[in-house]
Amino acid sequence: MTRTRIVGGKIIETTGGDYNIYTKENIVYSAGTTITETGVEKGVSYGEPEIYTNEVASEVTIKILNNTFLPLGIENVKGEIENKTIQFEIRLRKGKVENLILNVKHDGTAIFTKKIEETIRLGDKIIVDWDGFSDSKIYDSTFFTNGELIVELTGADNEAKDTFKSKYDEVKWVDIKIDDTAKKIDVILRVDLKDGRAKGINDADKVSKSAITHYNIQPFIKQNKSYEDLKKMALEGIDTYWSRTKSNNAKNKNGGVLINGNVYEVHVKSICQDENGMPAPEITYWTNTKLNLIQEILGANRSRNWALSRKLFYIEGYYHQDGYSSTTKDWLYIYPSNATKDFIETAAHELGHEILKEYLSFGKSITHKGSSSVMQSPNGEYTYPKNGGEIDIMKYVEYTEVKPIDFYDRVIADEKDVLGLLWCSKLKIK
Asked: Alpha-carbon distance 335 to 145, whole Å?
């Protein structure tokens, strides 16, 4: 580049501050007499050339827009998809940037990285969506509820980041982990079970001698199943009947749940935990059971799980039922193997009431999704499906219906109810 000035007279330039001249090539001064340079304070200095630029240092900001988040687009009870991504707003306050890198870190470790290839100019605002999954396509709700998450941008001249924490918006007793590649969802369900102790151990003398002779079995005079045994069985029930996999009773959707056009297997693992545990019944071991009229009317040994009464009964051994048999004085004997199967399924049913209450409503829960009255009487709205179909663990059939011989191979939590359990893991971002 060349610049030539030829002047016949004088040139006088006056500035209040510095006077800088930059060029990529040469600067040539030519005078007929003398060139004089004077520096009043520090003299005249010569040094390495400076490079001229008209670029302004870039400055970006980033912030989180969401206040709630639920992965994969899991629908709520109204069939609506809530916030299935976390949105980050990026603004450019100064300069120009391109090839920004967005990182999400959990307790200092990067779990998600995204390159923003578009050029961002002054005043621009862009939205970046994150589905909550790591770079290895794993979603873990505990990353959001435990520790600290930081979203940060690199590639600009300033440091831009935002810190956020989350808590569960609906309940505190469920964590979920999703492997999007394997299409598998692991659910951790915390349950606040309690020991309701034993009843009837001291009532062995009430069992009729004719019943003991008929069955040739002595009444229990001590607890045949410990509370630890019963607790383990109750948790087994939840895991067995609230999971939906190819290897359990799930017959529909290829053994899973349908989300966004994909089938995911759901594996539930329940643990007993007092703090932040799901409200759950006291487990009572009951044998040699004979109720008086008022107890029968009130259903004294009937399992239930709602705010004012949470009871889960394991009943085995001798049980009195009016009108059962004159031979045994109306005493029947419940074998431990039958008691165990019934208890495991009943535990899953009773704990399911709390899930329905949170996902559907208290009314839908207490009426077994419309299949019973509030007083727990079946209304005939639901019958056992034919041809080996799934039996909804949360619905009632009429007392007159005969339980299918393959009942325990078909009963399971309905797909929508399991999706409701997943919905309960919705996050509130703060």
From this structure: 45
What is the distance of C-alpha 79 from the center of its chain? 18
The highest-level CATH class for domain 59-168 is mainly beta
Please provide the DSSP assignment of 251-295 as one string.
Answer: -STTTSEEETTEEEEEEEEEEE-STTPEEEEEEEEE-SB---HHH
Q: Report DSSP state, residue 370.
A: T
Report the predicted TM-score, pTM, of the whole model to 2 decimal places: 0.84
Residue intervals in the chain for CATH 2.60.40.4070 = 59-168
Taking a C-beta distance cutoff of 8 angstroms, is the pair 354, 278 a contact? yes
DSSP notation for 200-216:
SGGGGGGS-HHHHHHHT
CA 314 to chain centroid, in Å, comes to: 31
Q: For residues 123 and 48, give the distance between their C-alpha atoms in angstroms, rounded to a whole number.
A: 36
- 85, 258, 290, 359, 360 from 78: Cα distances, Å: 19, 16, 46, 10, 9
Q: Which amino acid is at 256?
A: G
Q: What is the pLDDT along the chain (430 residues), one digit of tens a residue?
A: 555 555 555 655 555 556 666 566 667 666 666 666 666 666 566 666 655 455 678 899 999 998 999 999 899 888 888 899 999 999 999 988 988 999 999 988 999 999 998 899 888 899 999 999 999 999 999 999 998 899 999 998 888 999 988 999 999 999 999 999 999 999 999 999 999 999 999 999 999 999 999 999 999 999 999 999 999 999 999 999 999 998 888 887 778 999 989 999 999 999 999 888 999 999 999 999 888 777 776 778 889 998 889 999 999 999 998 899 999 999 999 999 999 999 999 999 999 999 999 999 999 999 999 999 998 899 999 999 988 899 999 999 999 999 999 999 999 999 999 999 999 999 999 8
Residue 70 CA to chain centroid, in angstroms?
8
| N-term to C-term CA, the chain | 57
